[in-house]
Here is the input.
Amino acid sequence: MQLTIYSQQKTTKSMDNILFRASQLGLLMTEARSKSEPLSETTKTYLTEVFIRLKYGREKDIASKYIAKGLAVEEDAITLYSRVTKEYLVKNEQHLRNSWITGTPDIVYGDHVVDIKSSWDIFSFWKSKTSPLDKGYYWQLQAYMWLLDVKKAKLAYCLVNTPASMIDDEKKKYIWKSGITGEDQSAEALEAIEKNMKYDEIPIAERCHVIEIDYNREDIERLIVRIEECRSYIAKTFNL
Amino acid sequence: MSDIVKLPTIGEIYANEGQILKNSALAVILNAEPLPAWVRVHPITKFRYIPIEIVEYLLTRIFSRWRVEILDTKVIANSVAVTVRLHYLDPITGLWDWTDGIGASPMQTNQGAGATDFNQIKSAAVMMAAPAAETFAVKDAAEKLGKIFGKDLNRKDSQAYESLGEIAVRRFTKTEERTAALIQDAETVEDLKKVEPFVTDATYDLFTAKNNEING
Here is the structure.
């Protein structure tokens, strides 16, 4: 399959046809409380951030330990998913775009696309198993299927070990927070932190949870309408 | 002349195995391995250590009488540093002897503040850091008395082996780790065929061994 490589928008010249990131489409598709308003407050807030990014090159800092772990263990999670599916899978590095959206799916394999979500811990992993599908992830995978022209997507939640440096960060936070200075006093609590962030003894099949999603043409049409509304909002609100 | 210490021969040194001072029962005790149950592993630094209560128990048990003299306390960077002299009554000679030790412990600053931002030091920081530094200093001094106090705990081969183990793991890249994992998981020829295109020099031996295992 031929994938298109795009250049990230950086200047105000690109404002006319803003391309929205697949990972953020959930923010565009939230419904407004009032039916007379096409865009929700969540969407408007996000659009302001998009405008600032494109005009001034500043991005709102969304750094968190959850995102940091996701990035740090990306390859480990793909390895876990590969082991569970018994297929050697490789991370996709190609950026895709069409006239409305951009995105970089984690894995493109055969007739489907896979997006990996690394859970922060075993509790958030199980929450993802027992909760309804996250709407943001739904739209993200619809977007990837649209970009790739495939009809099936898999959302794979993976539970892999937290990197040692991040475990140490959590331990240090605990030590500072608790005010403990003696090395013996905190040993049990620190061991518990480590145990909560490593999962080697849990069978790999129990550390991977996959949700299959089918392509929905009607939703993509709704998405296109919403993107046009968002572009109009940005042009009107920021006098472009 | 009777005070002259008899030097060991080079043959005794080579054959030593910790028995050079076999005529000294105290030296044998001090150079005995600590009980495994006494040794703890620090969860962050992974250093092995003997807790202060064990050190104090051993000092009392071996020397009967001991005391700590604080020689110096000072602030270095964001830490309180304490130098102590550990005095002990030598049970063989009946004379007091001593060994020095140094320890340091950081002073806590408020959450979000820099470690050396002294305007943000917690009110109880010195109160907590100073005794901790003294404890570390006493342990440092005691360690010099012999293995039983943890002298060689972090100097041993096991430490080196751990490091080598990490290096051995790191010789694989993340994708090679994936290859190795899939090779190890493989149960059939089909499983191996899937991973074969991704085998590199680093994983070739593993692949060959698994292939032989599956094909008998």
In short: The first strand of chain B starts at residue 40 and ends at 41. Chain B is about 40% helix and 15% strand.
